[in-house]
Design goal:
With 521 residues, the protein is an alpha+beta fold. It folds into 2 domains: 242 residues, no CATH class; 221 residues, Jelly Rolls (Sandwich). The chain is built from 9 helices and 21 strands. Strands 5, 6, 11, 12, 13, 17, 19 and 20 form an 8-stranded antiparallel beta sheet that branches. Strands 10-9-8-7-14-4-18 form a 7-stranded antiparallel beta sheet, with no helix packed on it. The protein has a two-stranded antiparallel ribbon with strand order 1-2. A hairpin with a 2-residue loop joins strand 11 and strand 12. The longest helix is centred in the C-terminal third of the chain and has 36 residues. The chain starts with 11 loop residues before the first helix and ends with a helix.
Length: 521
């Protein structure tokens, strides 16, 4: 029988068991435990040091919490409201003839007040389930720069005709209730009507409030910092709208209006000394003045559940060092008899490293996310609500991030064979772009491309912030917003890991072949 150079090949499961036996040294297990504790302890520390205290005179009281909308999301619900009761069937019709606003630039650099409307200033007619913040509503409105819109329950937005409003070009608005269905219509002459949208508000009581409203969100400005980065600053704004030809059908009490603010307002110097929020009737017209917003709560100045994962980068560095050393270290001889790592041995090590770092991520994120959020809220710090399924997705996503990044580091260790070089490359590729992008140092465009094109894109798995077109916000990495969805960011990281692992396997195969040839000679 002819001789052959083919040697028996060990099953991959056997290799995995053997590499796991090699991996589970006391030093490596201690390193995994340390990485887990770092993520958890730093996350809890964030909750401890962020303490909000409110007071009424010398007495400390619990800080008010942000309202929660019908779908469980944290919302902003602040506006001035002139209202009357409305039954299960009825309508409100009003003509808006003017909408003006004020924008205040805060001192010291912009100590001035200018007329103007921010793009999402809103005024119009609204049906709402009482004056409690966060209650269900549907509103038809004219906005500062986005024309007529119909919005309901904070997250839903439907566009009507573009353009503004003036005495020569008024806007007629109408909301009609039929049970739990609210229909919004607009007109330019009060005769020919166009339907803007329909809202279904389950659970509306038999009697709701209907009326006129005005609100205006803060205007955001960006203060330059660092190497072209920016920090968000907010300016107080106010909107006033003038209505006439107001008509109610289906439960109003004639011409008598109740009015007041939903949410607190009237605390700024401009409101106290110049123009307070309110409702004024005169000669058949009604003027409503207010500030705030009716929308999902913006992220400016708000904490999110992923803030508890601030220690993730440090924990990942520790895991990168661990995985790289395991990838570049000496290998036991496999069935080929060669001491160099074969491609199958490298694959077995990738399975071991990926599995243990995935479990590490599950434990770390699964513990710090609920505990850190609870500590933040216990200290009076508002945290944007995130659905339970979203939080589960974040925990699993963080575990996957750590696992794939560790496999990438392992592959770099096998590819470069010099531990310090592989560690430097892995940290520079995965952690450094994330840190630079998250700090207000670089221009937003540069930060966004860093988090699109580098392995740091995988950090998008922790994001819970959602961009709403009707909410003015600084949607940039320095504000905690990633340019890619979580799945796309993870896919970018997986692509890098797959390429690096393949290159490592090719090098390992060539190394084995070279050693065999040398032994044969």
């Amino acid at each position: 029988m002819p001789a052959t150079n083919e040697l028996p090949v060990e099953p991959l499961t056997t290799l995995v068991r053997r590499e796991w036996a090699t991996f589970r040294s006391r030093r490596r297990l201690v390193a995994l435990t340390a990485a887990t504790l770092v993520v958890i302890l730093i996350g809890l520390l964030v909750g401890v040091v962020n303490r909000s205290v409110c007071s009424e005179g010398p007495i400390e009281v619990a800080c008010p919490t942000d309202p929660v909308g019908p779908a469980g999301q944290t919302v902003s619900d602040q506006f001035y409201f002139a209202h009357q009761p409305l039954g299960e069937h009825g309508s409100i019709t009003a003509r808006m003839t003017a909408m003006t606003g004020t924008i205040t630039y805060p001192p010291p650099d912009h100590d001035e007040i200018v007329p103007g409307l921010v793009p999402w200033a809103k005024a119009g007619v609204i049906v709402k389930d009482g004056t409690r913040q966060g209650s269900s509503y549907a509103a038809l409105m004219v906005t500062g720069s986005h024309g007529v819109r119909m919005q309901h329950d904070y997250v839903h937005d439907t566009a009507g005709r573009p353009g503004g409003v003036s005495t020569s070009s008024p806007r007629w608005l109408r909301l009609t209730r039929a049970g739990n269905t609210i229909t919004g219509e607009e007109s330019t002459d009060g005769v020919r009507w166009t339907t803007v949208g329909t809202a279904h508000l389950p659970g509306l009581p038999r009697t709701v409030l209907v009326g006129l409203f005005a609100t205006s969100p803060g205007d955001l400005t960006l203060r330059p910092t660092g190497l072209g980065g920016s920090i968000v600053e907010s300016r107080f704004t106010q909107a006033s709208a003038v209505f006439d030809n107001v008509a109610l059908a289906g439960g109003g009490t004639g011409s008598r209006w109740s009015h007041g603010s939903v949410g607190e307002m009237g605390h700024t110097d401009w409101e106290r000394y110049h123009r307070p929020p309110g409702f004024v009737e005169s000669n058949g017209t009604a003027t409503v003045t207010g500030s705030g917003d009716i929308a999902p709560l913006g992220m400016a100045g708000q904490h999110t559940v992923e803030d508890t994962l601030v220690g993730l980068a440090i924990g990942l560095v520790m895991l990168i060092v661990l995985a790289t050393r395991f990838g570049s270290g000496r290998y036991r001889p496999d069935s080929t008899g060669a001491g160099a790592p074969g491609s199958r041995v490298l694959a077995a090590r990738a399975v071991v490293v990926g599995a243990v770092t995935f479990l590490t991520g599950l434990v770390a994120a699964g513990a710090v996310l609920p505990l850190g959020t609870a500590v933040l809220r216990a200290n009076g710090t508002a945290v944007l609500a995130a659905p339970a399924l979203t939080q589960v997705r974040v925990v699993v996503g963080v575990a996957a991030l750590l696992a794939v990044a560790a496999v990438l580091a392992l592959a770099l260790g096998a590819l470069f064979r010099r531990t310090w070089v592989a560690i430097l490359v892995a940290i520079s590729a995965v952690v450094l772009p994330y840190v630079l992008g998250g700090l207000p140092l670089l221009p937003d465009a540069v930060s966004e491309w860093l988090l699109r094109l580098t392995p740091a894109a995988g950090f998008a798995v922790q994001q819970t912030i959602r961009e709403y077109p009707q909410v003015l916000g600084h949607y940039a990495p320095s504000a905690g917003y990633f340019p890619l969805p979580w799945w796309a960011g993870l896919a970018v990281l997986c692509g890098y890991a797959a390429v690096a692992l393949r290159m490592g396997m090719i090098r390992a195969r060539r190394t084995v072949a070279t050693r065999r040839q040398a032994e044969w000679r």
